[in-house]
Design goal:
The radius of gyration is 18 Å and the shape is globular. The chain is about 25% helix and about 25% strand. The protein has helices spanning about 15-30, 50-60, 80-85, 130-145, 155-165, 215-220, and strands spanning about 1-10, 10, 35-40, 65, 85-90, 100-105, 110-120, 145-155, 175, 185-190, 195, 200-205, 235-245, 250-260. The model is unreliable at about 265-280 (pLDDT under 50).
Length: about 280
């Protein structure tokens, strides 16, 4: 059985959510997508996610939500992470942290897809070893799911590539997130795992990682704190579409996806509570 999975890159604030609301359903229907996975750790005002935004993403057509280093930026999401079976924080955070290590979605074809998020350790906050963590989860995931997808949320390309080769043949797909800039190295690795170093960003591309360029440049030039307002120009949905054979678990195809929001007029977005995000909003 062929299963198509759409992996969407970091959804940044209202612009990213809006393009999903306008474009995702049509794309899923037109391409016979069976499962949609989206990294949404920046979906609320550019940093974190709320319970309400989670519900919106599910209505737009997202089936599974992954998070990264901003998983707990909005504290109201903590009970949601504990109770819901469609959203995960990075599995290699502290074993005492709130949330699930992985979640599973059953497609309409009957095949099941598990997703796990791992956070990198190079240039990132302290975390448990992502390699040891995925090893400890592998047996349990294979017992519960036909297909396993890994979101490698990391800064260093070397760490992401290493994880891809480490998991080659063990999972069906490894896609990178966090840097918000799509890479052109999508491939099927030698043992059948689909891989890309970063799937890019769903949000404003006329920006610095989704924020207005002027304030970010000021911060870099002066080393002073400036509010990083969300940008709104050139809004796109970025990701990859992966086709997997559910019988042998191997990926057969991976292709980049980029959908532009048409007719965009409003290029001024603030955060959801009306305030610009702080300097460390990335």
């Amino acid at each position: 059985m062929k299963i198509k999975i759409l992996c969407i890159g970091d959804v940044v604030g209202r612009p990213g959510r809006h393009v999903l609301s306008q474009k995702l359903e049509e794309f899923v229907r037109g391409n016979d997508i069976d499962c949609v996975i989206a990294n949404a750790e920046n979906a609320a005002g550019g940093s974190g996610i709320t319970a309400q935004i989670r519900e919106k993403l599910l209505r737009y057509g997202v089936n599974l939500i992954t998070l990264g280093d901003h998983a707990y930026r909005k504290r109201e999401i903590i009970p949601v992470l504990e109770s819901c079976d469609d959203i995960v924080r990075p599995a290699n955070m502290s074993p005492n942290s709130a949330g699930k290590d992985f979640v599973v979605y059953q497609t309409s074809k009957g095949a099941t897809v598990a997703v796990v998020s791992l956070i990198g350790r190079i240039f990132m906050k302290p975390a448990e070893c992502p390699f040891a963590t995925i090893d400890s989860l592998m047996i349990k995931m294979k017992q519960q799911a036909d297909i396993i997808v890994v979101d490698m949320h990391a800064e260093a390309t070397s760490e992401k590539i290493a994880m891809g080769y480490y998991l080659d043949g063990k999972v069906s797909c490894v896609f990178g997130t966090h840097t918000h800039v799509v890479t052109g190295d999508e491939k099927i690795l030698p043992k059948g795992t689909a891989y890309i170093t970063d799937v890019g960003m769903t949000g404003s591309h006329d920006s610095v990682l989704g924020r207005k360029t002027e304030s970010v440049i000021k911060a870099f030039r002066t080393q002073m704190p400036f509010p990083f307002e969300l940008a709104g120009g050139d809004v796109r949905m970025s990701g990859v579409m992966v086709t997997v054979d559910s019988n042998n678990k191997q990926a057969e195809r991976i292709e980049r996806v980029e959908i532009r929001e048409e007719g965009e007029a409003d290029t001024s977005y603030t955060s959801d509570d009306g305030r610009a995000e702080p300097l460390n909003g990335f």
